[in-house]
Amino acid sequence: MGQNRSVAELLRSEMDKLTPTERKIARVLLANYPVAGLETIAQLAARVEVSGPTVLRLVSKLGFDSYTAFQAALRSELEARLQSPLVRREASLAAEGTNFLADFVRRQSELMQQTAANVSAAEFDGAVELLADPKRRIWLLGGRLTEPLAAYLAHHLKVVRSQVTQLRALPASWADHLVDMDKQDVLVVFDIRRYWQDAQRMAEMAAQRKVQVVLFTDQWLSPVSRCARFTLAAHTAGPAGWDANTPLLMLIDALIAAVNTRHWGDIHDRLQELEQMRAALGEGGA
């Protein structure tokens, strides 16, 4: 298995190379990630209605020499999902005599490169088209550490299109918005480890109403991925113990740039009118 790649990323990257039967297994694994992969070969094969040898062939294509190694990787990911910053911190980063800033920037650059390499063009392009569609209303939800990222994306989207709403991180208020959502809407959820059960419940209820869910998460995949139409997973394991938001911010900036570039004809007139209004109101600054 490639270093720093989760099993979910391997499944997604290899999907087009799998046989139809193997793709069935991959979809079940992703839809019930990572729990389905922790079942025995016989249990997983029965769940998907395939043979045991077919399961083993898929595991081999992912780069594992045995089903035991495959499950060991999943258990390691499950442990990583639950780790606190106390466990994650790498002591080597703080070693005396090192250039902390240079080392930190290098690691952030590596995380961004890993993120870019593992987000599929289909997932990224699909999210761009959903968020650029003027017929759809956009709702955004972030958690304790990702709410500022949701706000950042919301502010940019409000400039280039209408009907953009950021939800407060207060579950008691969500029903007032959920009741108005339908198949023309998009719910953008930010959820990183240790995942937010309330956000998962909100996304599932929105999906039941045919809302299209776009998920920003980490490489271990929030449970929201089970009901997400498109998932953008960033590598976020920062060496200082805290997960890094920089790779997620890179994905947001790339998405905003893609919306502007690909739909400039639709956006131009709105921006021109908006600038005239800002000048008339004496508004300055970003």
Automatic annotation (TrEMBL):
Every HTH rpiR-type domain range: 5-81
Residues forming coiled coils: none
SUPFAM superfamilies (UniProt xref): Homeodomain-like, SIS domain
Assigned keywords, A-Z: DNA-binding, Glycolysis, Transcription, Transcription regulation
Entry keyword annotation includes Transcription: yes
Keyword GTP-binding among record annotations: no
Range of residues in the leader sequence: none
InterPro entries for this protein: Homeodomain-like_sf, HTH_RpiR, RpiR-like, RpiR-like_SIS, SIS_dom, SIS_dom_sf, WH-like_DNA-bd_sf
Pfam families with a match to the protein in the record: HTH_6 (PF01418), SIS (PF01380)
CDD domains on file: SIS_RpiR
PROSITE patterns in UniProt: HTH_RPIR (PS51071)
Top-level taxon in the UniProt lineage: Bacteria
PANTHER family tied to this protein: GLUCOKINASE, RPIR-FAMILY TRANSCRIPTIONAL REGULATOR
UniProt name for this protein: MurR/RpiR family transcriptional regulator
Classification of source organism: Bacteria, Pseudomonadati, Pseudomonadota, Betaproteobacteria, Neisseriales
